[in-house]
Design goal:
6 helices
Length: about 725
Amino acid sequence: MSKKSLTVALVVLMVVALAILGLTSAKSKYSSGTNNNGTNNGEESAELETVPNNSDPIGDDYDFSVNSETKITLGESGAEVSGTGASVSTSSTGTTIEIVNEGVYRISGTLSDGQIIVNAPKSRVKIILDNASITSNSSAAIYIYKSKYTILELAENTINTITDASSYDFAMNYSSSEDGDPNAALYSKSDLIIMGSGTLEVNANRSNGIISKDNLKIVDATLHVKAANNGINGKDSAIIQNAKITIDAKGDGLRSTNDTDSSLGFIVITDSEINISATEDGIQAETNLTINGGTYNIESGVGYNSKKSSDNSMKGIKAGNIIQIDGATMKITSTDDAIHSNSVVNILSGNYTISTGDDGIHADSLLTIISGDINILESHEGLESDNIVIYDGNIDITADDDGINVSGGNDFSGFGGFDMRDSSNWGNRANRMSGDVTNQGGMGRRGMVQGEMPSGDMTPPEGMFNGEIPSEGIPEFMQTENNNTTFSMESLASNIDSNSTSISDSNKLVIKGGNIKVNSAGDGLDSNGSIEMTGGTVIVYGPTNSGNGAIDYDGTFTISGGTLIAIGSSGMAMSPSSTSSQKSLMYNISTQNAGTEIVLKDASGKEIIHVTAEKQYQNVVISTPEIEEDGNYTLYIDGAEVTSSATTGNTGFGGFGGQGGFGGQRGQGDFGTEDFQDRFGRPEDQNSQDQWNNQDGQERFGAQGGPGGFGGPGGGMGRMR
């Protein structure tokens, strides 16, 4: 998220800037070794925190054969059994077929009110559904009470249907309202295997579609599940192989929920086609989630552009420990994070299309992308984790806040001006997105060279504050005891110092290769620690408002390879650290429109970069291996020369301008609007619009503009870092 502060005087900005530059850079846990075009040079392998060996608890030795099958033929008035091991009974709750012995049972026909119960302790049971339709008006349609394991086989070229009751009678045999047994249209208290080339349609009217309270395995089968609550749940594990599954659930889609044993609660999906529409999470694993190959279309929540209506999780896929995905084709539309882990996410390869109301891919600890095509069409933040490592891949991110965010640590990284006419601009994300942070002050002088304080009187111009400012909506540290005083730069500086913490060594963004494009309304690349880039191509179309920057980091940004182009606003602009082995250029320019062509040429006229801006901008940062220590370079906007550089050195921060540009003097006065009065209240002696607009009101608050921001874009023009 963007964590820019409210307002700050130029003196405080420079103190903060120097303090940030003095912080120790984060230590990289990853070795370098990709070449500048973003491809792996073969000299390294990715360091991954891989998924533990979640072996199949059921294994492959679960099928068995017998000399004969018991045939069960369902009818409107009951059922007929041909063979041994099963019995039929009829009561007020319908017809019950109870299977009590190990064996194979083939079921066909239609049962309009009844139930299949398996009560065969420590026995292997196979049920073959052969165009069977089972409906219960009192409970679950199939209830596996006891067995060693049960196989539900779907006969080839058959369509089978099970439907449960909208309310359960827990007075029936083997039922318990206290334990919640049964609690699904297909409910098993032992290992359950669903297999075969037929189709199973599940209609869960009361709650869940399919539940195994032990392990669940689905192989080759085609399932259509519609559930009033959760779709499919394998409590201890869910393993899906070469299956076709469609789930429409009012709760979670597919889940594994054992939270008492760290070796269980996992999901493994291989080469399957899964379509999920869930009101809550699409796929949820309590521990680990592994996906290898397959096609996935997941819709979770109430839409990516809708506000959550409850506190329930509405993520696309999530896991408590590690998510690892390799070779999948995945489309996710989610209200919460599209892909979320409480620990680690590994994307090894595949194709991902994401639209989300929150993070595209989020890992609490570490996000590693080895390769793949990742297209985040809509997001609040695109990629977010305490640490992010990108080895390769094609990544395209659109975010209404930060594009790539390495979180954690202290994010007091800088301050932008604000408009005293509208206090909502201080923390309103929508205003930051649109750039509606006006009256930020005029253009500052040329920015300082890194580590060099500007000379001259730094006292703010007289009259910068026209009287008292109201306390409502002002941060506590900016107020005094009477809560109605002029702004104190000393109090702000003290607050910054008291709230500062060192940069955590564990927060780092590492880019080793790939092609990365970011279009963000907040920061483009944002690290609360450091950034390291050794290869690849990164193009950032950053914010249009000056409260954010195309690049934002608290430690260092070292670049030794690859191509970096960052285009955005100038107020908080940063470029790679001067200690980098690869040089950088930063240009602060007048506001340019979207659609303009940006070209950088060297002294011989050779074109080094050529891009078309997708948004309005005032700052351009360029770093490529072609920029040399003593080279001369010229920037062109739509063919017109902007500026050129014939010197080497450091640029400072660009956004930390000189003394000028305090701005915001009294003007014609529009503080009398009801909008302003609603935010700040009216003086007790002025209760009418006319009184509010009079001379006294203007002296209290100033008229149009009020105190503006401190310092404009500033910054060195095209000097190398």
